[in-house]
Design goal:
The chain has 2 helices and 6 strands. By secondary structure, it is α+β, with helices and mostly antiparallel strands. Strand 3 (16-23) and strand 4 (32-39) form a beta hairpin. The longest helix has 10 residues, at 77-86. The protein starts with a strand and ends with a helix.
C-alpha cells in the first residue's frame, strides 16, 4: 500500500510492522483494526487504521477516525506512547530502541 502522507509518498510494504490491535471482525459493523509501523528510511512511526461504519474505541463514545474507511498517518513519539498505553501493548526492546531513534 502506497499513500501520500503530509506531502510524502509512503510505502507500507517497506516498513516494519511493530504491533497491531483488532476490535471485532470485518463482518462486524463496528470493527476497528490498527497497525503501528516503523519507516526505517525516514525514522518515523505510522499508524494504519481501518474501521466499519460504527467503529468505536472501547472507551470512547462516538465514531473514531476510521469509521467507514481507512487511513495511514504519521505518528509522533508521544502519540505512539499513548497508543501503546491505550491498547495495553507491551513495549518490546525493539519498540523502545525505535522510540529513542525517532526524530
Amino acid at each position: 500500500m502506497k499513500r501520500v502522507v503530509k506531502g510524502k509518498v509512503v510505502d507500507a510494504a517497506r516498513m516494519e510492522k511493530l504491533a497491531s490491535v483488532e476490535y471485532g471482525s470485518i463482518m462486524d459493523y463496528g470493527y476497528c483494526w490498527e497497525t503501528l509501523y516503523w519507516n526505517p528510511d525516514t525514522k518515523e512511526f505510522y499508524l494504519h487504521g481501518k474501521g466499519g461504519a460504527a467503529s468505536r474505541y472501547r472507551e470512547a463514545v462516538g465514531m473514531n477516525q476510521w469509521a467507514e474507511g481507512e487511513a495511514l498517518m504519521r505518528y509522533s513519539k508521544e502519540k505512539v506512547l499513548d497508543w501503546l498505553e491505550r491498547n495495553q501493548i507491551d513495549v518490546t526492546e525493539r519498540i523502545e530502541q525505535l522510540l529513542e531513534e525517532a526524530e
